[in-house]
Specification:
The chain is mainly α. 74% of the residues lie in helices and 0% in strands. It holds the Pfam family UAA.
């Protein structure tokens, strides 16, 4: 089942119209973003009765569009709203930006080789490499229950990957290349969140972080596209297919708005509520993808998904208990999320 623009706009409108605050808006942004991401990278544009159409293949161009719009949104927010005095050296943003761009590229490219539910579940298991990277980069220590839940997540992901049902012909089968790209995405993204944690020592706001990271991300991506001569080709593809242009624009809007709604949710409801919302969003994303694009999940695979999300919710519960006892809990990941 292909999703056209009216259906996408209807999906976004339905979610947004029921909003009671930033929480539902954020869910609307990211769920629409997830559906669009799969549509752009796995379906053809311009298909007719006599022509199969052509697919968009340059992930970097989509990364650039997302980063440019996020940079504009963050810049306007910084201009319109009072921000703390900026004290971080600008070059320090470049490390997070480079890993940010690489993780985004791996994320888009992986959709050519794995199904969308597989990618979403891999994101849900990101806590494992985040813990490992936290030990290497930030010298953090973790509780026994954190290792337990990380092990449960590993078991759940393995159950899902080893029991995948048949995929529709229009969807990619999970391959070794796709799994390597997913591993690259998780590794780069884990480094990004831990490096951002270190940058917050300069007492900056989340929007200032968003601006700095996206600024260097734009520079890196433009330089890469110009060196490959792909910037013009991406622009030409947009000119040939107005539907793709609309999809790419809406994808970028959802990406930028989603980041801002993250900051609102954490500020208003706290990190624990944010983590629960994040977990539920990933579950909804898998369900929507299965309904819209015909993915199938076996009983064992469904149990694997349930194990992963149960482990994530257990982490939230355990952290809440620690805070009630007056112990300082280490955050799961940086408040700044990238998409």
């Amino acid at each position: 089942m292909l999703l056209d623009m009216p259906a996408l706009w209807y999906l976004a409108t339905c979610w947004c119209s029921t909003s009671r605050g930033g929480t539902t808006w954020r869910q609307a942004s990211y769920l629409t973003w997830g559906v669009l991401q799969e549509r752009v990278m796995t379906r053809s544009y311009g298909a007719t009765a006599t022509w199969a159409g052509e697919r968009f293949t340059d992930s970097q161009f989509l990364v650039l569009m997302n980063r440019v719009l996020a940079l504009i949104v963050a810049g306007l927010y910084c201009l319109l709203c009072k921000q703390p005095r900026h004290g971080a050296p600008m070059y320090r943003y470049s490390f997070a930006s480079l890993s940010n761009v690489l993780s985004s590229w791996c994320q888009y490219e992986a959709l050519k080789f794995v199904s969308f539910p597989t990618q979403v579940l891999a994101k849900a298991s990101k806590v494992i490499p985040v813990m490992l990277m936290g030990k290497l980069v930030s010298r953090r220590s973790y509780e026994h229950w954190e290792y337990l839940t990380a092990g449960l997540i590993s078991i759940g992901v393995s159950m899902f990957l080893l029991s995948s049902g048949p995929e529709p012909r229009s969807s990619p089968a999970t391959t070794l290349s796709g799994l390597i790209l997913l591993a690259g995405y998780i590794a780069f993204d884990s480094f990004t969140s831990n490096w951002q944690d270190a940058l917050f020592a300069y007492k900056m706001s989340s929007v200032q972080m968003m601006f700095g990271v996206n600024f260097f991300s734009c520079l890196f991506t433009v330089g890469s596209l110009l060196e490959q001569g792909a910037l013009l080709e991406g622009t030409r593809f947009m000119g040939r297919h107005s539907e793709f242009a609309a999809h790419a624009l809406l994808l970028s809007i959802c990406s930028a708005c989603g980041q801002l709604f993250i900051f609102y949710t954490i500020g208003q409801f706290g990190a624990a509520v944010f983590t629960i919302i994040m977990t539920l969003r990933q579950a909804f994303a898998i369900l929507l993808s299965c309904l819209l694009y015909g993915h199938t999940i076996t009983v064992v695979g469904g149990l694997g998904v349930a194990v992963v999300f149960a482990a994530l919710l257990l982490r939230v519960y355990a952290r809440g208990r620690l805070k009630q006892r007056g112990k300082k809990a280490v955050p799961i990941e940086s408040p700044v999320q990238k998409v």
